[in-house]
């Protein structure tokens, strides 16, 4: 997110930031994907803060601050306390933002803060290294173009909805990211919008608009100045000699910069011959793979709508005139060569598999149709025979299984029978011994009786004798 | 001011700035190859010495001075720091000292004149906070005034601290073996301090006398650029 510069009254308050200011800046400032600083050609009022400093807030102290500047937080001295640190930090940042985009120097800050200078320097260095102050680009080199547009784009994303006013000046301003469209832009006449290549690819337009409504408009300044035949000849010679080394090509073509040579070469009608078909596919597939299904339709539409254009503009991948390839190049650079390679290969294999599957699918019905009579029979017999063989095998297996089961069952039965026999024997034994026991009991009883009678007889006889 | 005012006699204290932060006022006035660099700021003597060179380089880079200034600045700072450190081992008597601090400075276009009482015994005092509050209360917009005020206060406190060290040494030399009450007279002899007892005795009131009111009131003037030029010219003449 980009933050508007706080326009507080007076340039030099020693106060810590008042609550009214914190309203406008309470949101966390974030937004850039890359650590490269954004181009200062975009809005002067917006202040960019790198995404790794997203933690910053006017009223809070983050852990990284405590870690980097422990002197304020270890209560070694009563005046070096967190409140003092907040005063220093907020004053420095406020002072920088008041004067933005001018870079603020340590001496400027040191002169306005009431503190010992070394503490000020430490806080200043800390803020500088975290990009909370003095975070503007000084030079914009060509490779930074990605990041500029990226920055402008993401700033535009978070800032507000794209405005509907179009500036029809000589320099076209993109509605999405509010940056100046330099190489190419896409104009939609229906809704009167202009988008830079980046915003177009990112589909940073309103919901109702289809990507096909946009027309590509070349803004490249060199198109105004036509290339003479001589220059084109020199260019071709140079390219034949030096190939892709544009640094050598540019001086060969007198009076044109590298960029111009590249863009001109790409515009040449026979640029196609220098482009390998597979590369084109690979590149696009890789792009699709990497991006996933994020914007499937627009890619598809783009491919169809712009393929002839794209084929011409493929060789210099760094050229921003072709948004898709540019995107692919950027993404592959982001992801690393190995990943991009793997993705491309996977895409190619997937593609070839799809092709084969298609061929197979189309192949089978074809085969059956064309090779009906002669080979059809033989194949059918073969298959039937195979089928019969299989069936017999199955039956055999079943039989074997049955036999095995029968045997098992018989064995079990035998076991049981043996056991029964054994138990019967035991039973008999039991009976016999019981009978014996009974007899013995009987005998015993008889003996007892006899004894009893005898004793009784003896007693009665004794009694008669006594009487 | 923070901290309690001590009422009893204090024994000799190791020299230090009588403030919460032991910061040294550093003044720079370097002339070299026709260029003059004047500056004043506060330095923490407990910072490592390499900070001096870092600061000098930073300043030279920011102000786009010729590189030769780096060594000169560093040397000047170092010498002032070593002076300060030389005092550090020695004793100073503080006693019941309330001293008036006077401010009479011009920073860019702001002129400040003020006088107030400062308690030397209060080792928790903070000139920085005083300066911040002063500027905030008086609505001073120029942010460079604050540091200048803090510096002026510190400079005066430093002077007085040095004097107390000197007087302590004197009294020790002249009255060997005799400690105690004499230090009070010695400090009074410096002429700057005021006697608390006399000031706040039951005979006089705490309220300031009317004739003193103007003296103790801060005055802030915003000068126009012509007045600034005139003053600068006068200052240069005085300096020469």
From TrEMBL, chain A:
Residues 47-144 form the SWIRM domain. Pfam families: Myb_DNA-binding (PF00249), SWIRM (PF04433), SWIRM-assoc_1 (PF16495). Residues 227-261 form the HTH myb-type domain. GO terms for biological process: chromatin organization. Residues 219-269 form the Myb-like domain. SMART domains: SANT. Transmembrane segments: none annotated. Residues 1-20, 355-385 are annotated as: Disordered. It is found in: Nucleus. GO terms for cellular component: nucleus. GO terms for molecular function: DNA binding. Residues 363-378 have a biased composition (Polar residues). Residues 394-443 form a coiled coil. It comes from the Eukaryota. Residues 222-273 form the SANT domain. Its main location: nucleus. The keyword NAD does not apply. Keywords: Activator, Chromatin regulator, Coiled coil, Developmental protein, DNA-binding, Nucleus, Transcription, Transcription regulation. This is SWIRM domain. It comes from Arabidopsis suecica.
From TrEMBL, chain B:
Signal peptide: none annotated. One of its GO terms (biological process) is chromatin remodeling. It comes from the Eukaryota. It holds the Pfam family SNF5. This is SNF5/SMARCB1/INI1. GO terms for cellular component: nuclear chromosome. InterPro entries: SNF5 (IPR006939). It comes from Arabidopsis suecica. It is found in: Nucleus. Belongs to the SNF5 family. Keywords: Nucleus, Transcription, Transcription regulation. Its main location: nucleus.
